[in-house]
User: Fold this.
Amino acid sequence: MPTVRGVSPAEGRVLVGVTVAGLVLSAIAPKSYGTWALEVIWVLAGLPLVLFYRKRFPLTRLLCWLLVFHALVLCYGGHYTYAETPLGAWFQEWLGTSRNHYDRFAHVVQGFVPAIAVRELLLRLTPLGRGWTAFLAVCVCATISVGFELVEWGAALALGGAATDFLGTQGDIWDTQWDMFLCVCGALLALLLLRRVHDRQLDAAVQVRQ
Assistant:
């Protein structure tokens, strides 16, 4: 399998440093350590995995930067809870909306970043062409979103009112449907906006069946 040229060692250290700093800062007096842990567990699991495989399976620069961005989104939401983030509150006041929409933004990111990750894995590890890869990337992102909603459902059943911060529905009875819809929108948006730059970073090393 051809090797993709990933980030340089210096750039990699910067990305790891930013991610670790985000984790540490988010862990300082969060609103709820339980909610924080549930939100950042994906960062705590993903960072060691990427570092472990960095030499055998280096990721493209685009994907590395996107993963760090996603990690910071999760850390920020985990610290404040998605319903009470200051950034979301600022936009709520500026736009005059009835709720803090940071969680909506986070669910767009939930589809945006994994779509590129799935696309990269499929193009590098399978003989699939770009058409099937795009379709499957969106399907995987939708499945991930469903999985998160099931986790939230389980948390609500197990914790009752204590799961309110983690759920972040803010009284919206359609919150689950919005979350899944926005995740799919994020995946589609990533494929439309980043496909060309992603291809340029992959094509030099990976022969993709058209």
